[in-house]
From TrEMBL:
Keyword set, alphabetical order: Antibiotic resistance, ATP-binding, Nucleotide-binding, Nucleotidyltransferase, Transferase
Protein name per the record: Spectinomycin 9-adenylyltransferase
GO biological process, one term: response to antibiotic
Taxonomic source organism: Paenibacillus lautus
Gene3D superfamilies hit by this protein: Beta Polymerase, domain 2 (3.30.460.10)
Matching CDD domains: NT_KNTase_like (cd05403)
Organism phylogeny: Bacteria, Bacillati, Bacillota, Bacilli, Bacillales
């Protein structure tokens, strides 16, 4: 199933279930920012509703999303949240959400018809809202800036810092994620640019010491699915990079 077909079907199923209460469906993440890798990237959506969906509606949505996910060629599939329009206008941190679906929750949805992820708060939403405001695409409904006001900078900074705070402990397990995210966070703090992981890594190649370029190049290669296979970075080097980057981030704050 091609990506445009996935987007069209996702919009259709939310139109079917939410009807006139669907404010809009918004694309963010790598696909919106031009660095989507069909083999590894997920499709990131944010769905805005005018009123809280019923539990029955959310159960039906979960079943339809499972079927859509099964037809996708990449295993990451969809990642999306449903939020209320009112929560965007009176933003609190962490922002609340009504429903969430992702590959991480897929097995729970398959195993338990009553399982629903929703009714909580998620710091990541502050980052998603910021990306949508600056780089997002309205797939259906109201234009982005009629729905998403600017996010307080402190909320966005909190969200992206939480995303990398465990980098020293976790970078050897997820080297691509943390290498590029650390670059992306420092890029924003120094230059105010809301970037993708790919753009963050490319900035790192321009702005960071040359000793870090091989590991950034390797992460970019893995992230984009490039040809060839550059040498992997040693665990000790990755840990040292993460520690140094967190110190640079602290200084930038």
């Amino acid at each position: 199933m091609d990506t445009q077909s996935v987007l069209d079907q996702a919009v259709d199923l939310f139109k079917e279930e939410l009807g006139s209460h669907l404010v809009g469906v918004y694309l963010h993440g790598s696909l919106a920012m031009g660095c989507f890798n069909p083999e590894a990237s997920d499709v990131d959506l944010l769905v805005v509703a005018a009123r809280q969906p019923s539990r029955d509606q959310l159960r039906r949505l979960a079943k339809k999303l499972l079927a859509l996910h099964d037809g996708m060629s990449n295993q990451q599939g969809l990642e999306l949240s449903v939020v209320l329009e009112s929560s965007l206008l009176e933003l609190v941190y962490p922002p609340p959400f009504e429903f969430h679906y992702s590959a991480f929750h897929r097995e729970r949805y398959l195993a338990d018809d009553d399982y629903l992820c929703g009714g909580f708060q998620d710091a990541d939403l502050a980052a998603h809202y910021t990306v949508i405001y600056h780089r997002g695409i309205a797939l259906y409904g109201k234009p982005v800036r009629e729905v998403f006001p600017p996010v307080d900078r402190s909320y966005y900074v909190q969200a992206i810092l939480e995303d990398v705070e465990s980098a020293v402990q976790d970078i050897t397990a997820s080297p691509v994620y943390y290498t590029l995210n650390l670059c992306r966070v420092l890029y924003y703090l120094r230059e105010g640019v809301v970037s993708s992981k790919k753009e963050g890594g490319e900035w790192g190649l321009r702005a960071l010491p040359s000793q870090y370029h091989p590991m950034i190049e390797h992460a970019l290669h893995q992230y984009t699915g490039g040809a060839g296979k550059p040498a992997e970075s040693a665990p000790d080097g990755l840990i040292a990079f993460a520690g140094d980057m967190l110190e640079r981030i602290r200084k930038a704050l």
